[in-house]
Specification:
alpha/beta; D-Maltodextrin-Binding Protein, domain 2; 2 domains; seven-stranded mixed beta sheet; 9 helices; 11 strands; about 40% helix
């Protein structure tokens, strides 16, 4: 006789694995800690498997738990997709999505277009700003989801991809050969300080050719071959090109693109929007598929 898995218990299991503990998962799910623990216990009993390793200070997945996690996410995604597809007309409202200005194009418009097809009566308001400002707004509850470019994510965030920075300049440009090396950055750009540190460590003199709050000003200066800039690998804008410096410039550090979503573990339009963003990154990073951050 076929047996059915408890989707509610699976959702609790996924939340525990993503949150790193029962207490945080319970908060995300708006359940008591004992309720979440009981659901995990019922799931383990139904499968006759131990899913969580409780021997360490922090809960970790067993080998069986790791195997189940992939299946659970797919089952929940399909369950949520069915509800979204069949009940999308019931949803009305607005979602605030914050994205650093330089990872908006071209993928975010594609995500928004797909989301609109699933939720035609929902509005997504796109807020473009710097990571520091977006995180502050998210903490104040002013935005529902944000993408950031930073190191390790704070509590509640998840890393979608990690890539090194690369040097970019004007097409067939020569600015990268000049010394001191002329740089162009926004004031609040997180890439700026690590790049300067890498140049200092390599003994390469530099100067700020452009300091601006406008990304358009920076891009115009670099396009005119008056300075160089940095972007995440594979994210070169079409009007600029990666500099083939053959070691004349230092290698640069990596940065992560992180995702923060309010109400983790819940279901609905916001979580579906977040999943569309995740799928975009899972499908690969390229200049055509995902712009720089």
């Amino acid at each position: 006789m076929p047996r059915n898995l408890d989707l509610t218990a699976l959702r609790s299991f996924v939340a525990v694995s993503e949150a790193g503990g029962v207490t945080r998962a319970a908060g995300f799910l708006n359940l008591t800690q004992s309720a979440v623990s009981m659901q995990i216990k019922r799931l383990e009993e139904a499968l006759d498997l131990q899913l969580l390793d409780r021997s360490a200070r922090q809960i970790a997945l067993t080998a069986s738990g790791e195997q189940l996690l992939g299946y659970a996410k797919r089952m929940l995604a399909l369950n949520d997709e069915i509800y979204a597809r069949l009940t999308a007309q019931e949803y009305e409202g607005e979602i605030m999505l914050g994205v650093p200005h330089d990872i908006v194009y071209p993928s975010i418009p594609q995500v928004m277009q797909r989301f609109h097809a699933d939720y035609p009566r929902m509005k997504v308001h796109l807020l473009s700003s710097f990571t520091k400002e977006l995180k502050a707004q998210f903490a104040r509850g002013e935005v529902d989801a944000i993408l950031t470019t930073e190191g390790l994510p704070d509590e509640g965030g998840e890393t979608l991809i990690e890539l090194p920075l690369v040097w970019v300049g004007a097409q067939n440009g020569q600015a990268w050969r000049g010394r001191p090396l002329r740089l162009a950055y926004e004031y609040n750009c997180r890439f700026r300080a690590p790049v300067q540190q890498a140049l200092d460590a390599a003994g390469i003199p530099w100067e700020m050719a452009v300091e601006s709050n406008s990304s358009r000003t920076v891009e115009a200066t670099v396009t005119a071959d008056l300075a160089v800039h940095t972007v995440m690998e594979g994210a070169e804008p079409p009007h600029l090109e990666r500099i083939n410096h053959n070691g004349a410039l230092p290698d640069l550090p990596t940065f992560k693109v992180n995702l923060y979503v309010a109400g983790i573990g819940t279901k609905g339009p916001l979580q579906d929007l977040a999943e569309l963003i995740r799928q975009t990154y899972r499908n690969g990073w390229s200049a055509r598929g995902l712009s720089r951050s």
